[in-house]
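User: quick one
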Amino acid sequence: MSARVIAFGTALLPPLLLVGAWQIASSTGLFPPQILVSPADVAGTIAELVRNGELGSHLGDSLFRLFWGFGIGALAGLAFGTALALSRLFEALFQPLFQAARQVPILAFIPMLVLLLGIEEGFKITVVAVAAFFPVALATFDGVRGIPKGWLEVARVYRTPFPSLLVRILIPATVPPVLTGLRLGLTRAWLVLVAAELLAADNGIGQMMEMGRQLFRIDVVLAGVIVSGLIGFALDRGVKLFERRYTRWRVA
Amino acid sequence: MTAQPRIQPQSAATDAPASGALTLSALSKRFAIEGRALPVLDGIDLSVRPGEFVSIVGASGCGKSTLLRLIVGLDTDYSGEIRLDGKRITGTSLDRGIVFQDHRLFPWMTLEENIGLALLNSEIPKEQRARIVCEHIALVNLTGFEKAYPHQLSGGMAQRAAIARALVTEPTLLLLDEPLGALDALTRVHVQTELQRIWMRQRSTVLMVTHDVEEALYLGDRVIVMAPNPGRIRRIVDVDLPHPRDRSSPVLHRLRDEILAELTGAPDPENLVRFPAQEPR
Ligand SMILES: Nc1ncnc2c1ncn2[C@@H]1O[C@H](COP(=O)(O)OP(=O)(O)O)[C@@H](O)[C@H]1O
Ligand SMILES: [Mg+2]
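Assistant: Done. Structure below.
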């Protein structure tokens, strides 16, 4: 227990030092205060944005898009990855296209999607879905393909009925790689969403930052940086906790 | 492992099981590798009595695992015939169990879930399954580990768990593919003793592949010696000793030397070292 407290404190040290250095640098007066806002001011801005509900509203919009985009992309990725792993024909048809398309940076899809979908909700949800799709599809494909043949033979020997085979063997065997893929997909989706909102949106955490930039409110921009970073961190950690809980049998 | 329970000396005639007769006739198997046919088993004829324990030894690659896979029904592409109690084998069935060299327990299932898995498709009523699983865990001396995950078991325990899983359906024929191959020497001796005790209790027909000639002789009523390329039966050795056996029995030692000589090829007189000053050996 105390080892964990120490580890936690150790991990907290660099960020605290960074904020300290930032505070000192901004209080020297060497940099114009509009450019280098002090951490205290940013904290004040965050508190203000929370109080007047602006942050909550932007965050709500962003998380709404993340929820739908990630949900759609992850489900599509699960289905696509499974089909790719199980069907020879499907693999012959789609594997090359899939392998090529997943090399394209997601942000490069944005101009094309804007042309096709405009900059409304549909566009942002699609970008997020695309970002989530690739890592989930890849992890699912690897996970299903990677099920050891020996395990399937055990199921054949005991004539395990298909529903049980699916629920007790196939799904648990693919859960660890798929969860890793979902985690990767979720954090990617968040990154891409914030970027897409910076480029084209009427609301959302990215748009809040873009507005801040246009109004020369660096404190608002930095507030957005901090909040989006914390959200990404929390999403990653959340799935990791879930992973650890449901794959406890893996740890020796 | 605790002291052995009382074992009734085997009385051949009275408690011989009625089912579990395995017959292989003209059994051949070939694999196609890069378009060419590789004969792996060629003309295997064998008849195993109900309740008999037959060991199989032979050079690695001579088709022992392939033979067991055919008998268990994982591979149905062969020529010749395999019959269990007169019925032709066409696929897997709960009356044939198998233990692989790697225990193949599922890491996300507890010991009792792993063993219970074998009963999912059995005719045993659901409410009796837990009890039967429990009995088989006790049979392999793993009581107390019902909720343990495979990574919490030692190699010997995991292999015993795999044996319990194979036995829980009460198969008439049990196939063992080098089940103790991955264990250290001391654990092996323990599990061999366990296996003998279990077999004497269950009295199912057993076909065990092993690379350990002593193990084959200690457990087997007969030892099949196979020859490679393609796999054939070279010789069948009867081990006419009652169970449970004494490892130090001179009969076992003599048979071991014979089989080892057979497997490593007859000694070439040219290579024998002669000691002219000594009496003939
Ligand atoms: N699925 C397979 N495809 C092609 N060749 C195989 C296959 N399985 C086994 N073989 C070949 O058959 C031969 C016998 O293999 P195996 O039955 O595993 O031998 P053993 O168990 O006696 O060591 C080996 O030469 C092996 O390479
Ligand atoms: Mg083998």
